[in-house]
Amino acid sequence: MRRRVFLWWTGAVAMLVLVAGALSGVGVGSAYAESNGGVRVMPLGDSITDGFTVPGGYRTGLWQRFANDGYRVDFVGSLSNGPAALGDHDHEGHSGWRIDQIDANVVTWLRTYTPHTVLLHIGTNDVLQNHDLAGAPARLSALLDHITATVPTAEVFVATIIPLADSGQEANARTFNAAIPGVVQSKVNAGEHLHLVDMHAALTTADLADGIHPNATGYDKMAADWYSALKSVPGSIGDADGGNGGGATPPPGGCAAKYTVAGQWSGGFQASVTVTAGSSAIAGWTVTWHYAGGQSVTQAWNATVNSSGSTITAHNVGYNGALGAGASTDFGFTGSGSGGEVPALTCTAG
Description:
Layout: H1 11-24, E1 29-30, E2 39-45, H2 47-50, H3 58-68, E3 73-75, E4 79-80, E5 90-93, H4 99-113, E6 117-121, H5 124-128, H6 136-150, E7 155-159, H7 167-189, E8 194-197, H8 199-202, H9 216-231, E9 255-265, E10 268-277, E11 285-290, E12 296-301, E13 304-308, E14 311-315, E15 328-336, E16 345-349
Parallel strand pairs: 2-3, 2-5, 2-6, 6-7, 7-8
Antiparallel strand pairs: 1-4, 4-5, 9-10, 10-15, 11-14, 11-16, 12-15, 13-14
Helix pairs in contact: 3-9, 4-6, 6-7
């Protein structure tokens, strides 16, 4: 297991965290290359990308947004961690790393995983370690040059770094952030596919768990900001054509199903599934899916639901099996376990 080195903190808390990480060996394992054949997206950065304080970080909320809206995305990277609700755990979030350290390795990662889209949030450790702050924009520029030279057709989203609670560090963060738009624009003017994301404006210090890393609310705000930016750039995450959430165009004589999380609470959740007939009528339908996190269905309505291990099968009931061309019906259920997972659905007519 890799040794985990966290973002550098100041004072006694920093020392305790760093020592604990060294002694315990807490870490993120090598990526096991989960892939659904979707658009390859590389989350790239430090422990904020990794998800320190909240496992999975922004990646969980971003993945769920992809799945709910039918985008098929494949997170890529040499590291892997996060909860079951995160459908793809791969990333390049290296705890404690500065811009120069990411730059020293990025070409290898890009050649290995060939991402179509890169999500870059980096520079926080340069500020926390007070590492040649005047040169940080130039280091970022060099990193971006290496990214665009290695994957010249990739869409690269460059974030300003999120706020810091310490006033002195926050002042330095703002100075660094003020230089980022100019760095990005210079690359855009040269024809590169770069896009600025003002992540600093998306969060406040109230969204931080420890003065540096986001809490759950802060990470979800990051996910929302990334998602909004990605949707504004055509092709950066493909088309909403039935990724893990379902919702693809139904084939003639067939059906499609879309899964939606309606609500969550501690130890449970409620979800619904919409079944839609294709261009011709169907006499009945069956929807199947698998839960990766051990969830189970406890009660269902408008469908007969059966479980076999991690496989869930839902059949129409008497009054909602026959659907005209293009018509839809819904069924719902409550379940135990994490409600964040949005599984892939298979719909069979007949």
